[in-house]
Amino acid sequence: MDKKQVQENMHKLTTELNRHNYNYYVLDKPEISDIEFDRMLKELEELEKQHPDFASPDSPTQRVGGAITKKFDTVIHKYPMLSLGNTYSKAELEDFDKRVRKTLGEDYAYVCELKFDGVAIGLTYTKGRLTRAVTRGDGVQGDDVTANARTIRSIPLNLHSKDIPQEFEARGEIVMPHKSFIRLNEEKQLNNEPLFANPRNAASGSLKLQDSSLVARRNLDCYVYGILGEDLPFASHFENLEKARQWGLKVSDLTRKCDTIEQVMHFVEEVENKRPQLPYDIDGIVIKVNSYHQQEHLGFTSKFPRWAISYKYKAEQGITKLLDVHYQVGRTGAVTPVAILQPVAVAGTIVKRASLYNADKMHEMDLHYNDTVYIEKGGEIIPKIVEVDTSLREQHAHRIEFISHCPQCETPLERNDGEAVNYCPDSAHCPPQIQGKIEHFISRRAMNIEGLGEGRIEVLIQNKLISNIADLYDLQYEQLLGLEKIITDEFTEKQKKISFREKTVNNILGAIESSKKVSFERVLFALGIRFLGETGAKKLARHFLSLQAIQSSSYEDLIAVPEIGERIAGSVIAYFNDPENLEIVRRLKDAGLQMETQKSVTENAAGLPLSGKSFVVSGVFEKFSRNQVKELIEQNGGKNVSSLSSKTDYLLAGDKMGPEKKKKAEELNIPVISEEDFEKMIG
Length: 683
Ligand code: IVH
Description:
Oligomer: single chain
Bound molecules: 2-(butylsulfanyl)adenosine
Radius of gyration: 31 Å
Mean pLDDT: 91
Number of domains: 6
Shape: globular
Helix content: 25-40%
Strand content: 15-25%
Number of strands: 24
């Protein structure tokens, strides 16, 4: 194939793939199979690799992302991004119409649209090409998230039509469809990561990811609900939206022009009925006066346009039976009641449990077994019970009482004055609390023992191999090899098998061994002394220099340390008064953990390899976390500074460091060193 043929071929593939993308993501009407699409995409990718000069910036291969944005640029909106006045009542909607009629004194029409529950976005198209995507921000200025928006398949990178204005801005909402949301949370759950509370937060979080290839995998969608510009084809909203649809932008089919407020009301009801079946969240209907001229005439209040309003639906509710109440014991010992429900569909998901918060809230509702309850999905992951229909209560139904003993270890529950939580006081022996302590101990910022995540701790506890943090250091290869357990995830109900194969066991034991080098201040934090956070541990470690000194210090000695208050001091004293804790600490010391620190690093810095040198650390490193690098700098007598100045000695650059930093270092003549250089420096 000669060059010209290759170029033509690539152009053809690009156009074809863009058309299929549009059919699939905007029209929801695919013409070819996913396999066929992927085959064509691969072919184009291959050609682009061989002939990068011919690759178009609008190539569908660019949708997979790859650009890394360290910090989003702030962009001032050409047209401010306004918000809308809300109402929940039809009577107020009538009032809105009366005001419009009175002010205009002539015929007018409304446009009714879905009020999407996502993140607002402004998409600028210049000569038909997507040039910028900016979030709402504070309405005046927002973040430039173009690289991320480009990965959203329903946002066209290029528009094809003769009547496209030179420049215009499409306003719309980025939403995460229910299906993608559920999948994302399932994935997060499996990785033991915190879940997103709702699709809006998930959409917003996704759009702010720094790695656009991750955004590409989040399956976001974008609906356009407004067009702004100087040379738009029409002087009215509805007609311009229709045009935008023809240009290739995704405009919802549930957009209606209505001549009367009655038609508006009808649309509001129509959509309310369709709402449970919509694949994404909406929270109401937006009603806008169609003519721009009339919009201008109506103007604005101090906050909102007078030509538009949003009618909000009530949160979606479901009605079902309360079967039972279960009690969960958290990692800190707090006991939370959870309602077990007859499964019911609400807002796109099947609900089987509802949050009851605590004993007081539960008793307030006076719940009885088999009660008929109304549940609602708010901003939380777990829905809540909003009402009990007592008229439907069975005659001899039993009242549900809060438990008196820990469901995990049978210890009588306690409650502190003025607090609403009931908790299990036996923190040393109650299994979820043991687990919580060990999870904290091994966490990245504490001992950083990798390989024990994803339910492995649970397996070790159940097999009675560990019951406290010191037991970790007695674990033997033979005890671990071959352990296995199938765990059913509570949230996803998916089963996963946890097994301890040779490689895993070696990794775990290796990580435990390496943890013996972790600095004293982190060991102190890892002990899990109540209220003693990372900063407090650092302060105490640097002040007393050894665990022995902390252990034998008095309450007064402790509160004399800057930033150590009564609460922490009291808790430290209580910790070392408990013989079980003393035994654990003794065993940790025997195992070889760092129980002291050298004289304050700065005081003792002279003679250390990095003494007197200041470092800016940026990017991602291969062998160490960024925190570890910073710690190494301090341990070797160096100083960490946050930004580059003429006084900085080195810029320690990891992967993915922003180009501006490098440029600035070069301008200031600051040597840029790699992780390897750094290792050599500290020997
Ligand atoms: S129009 C002046 N239309 O709601 C009009 N907004 O409260 C400005 N939203 O931040 C907005 N769907 O994110 C408009 N069909 C729709 C909408 C919509 C959702 C969001 C938007 C904005 C907020 C306004």
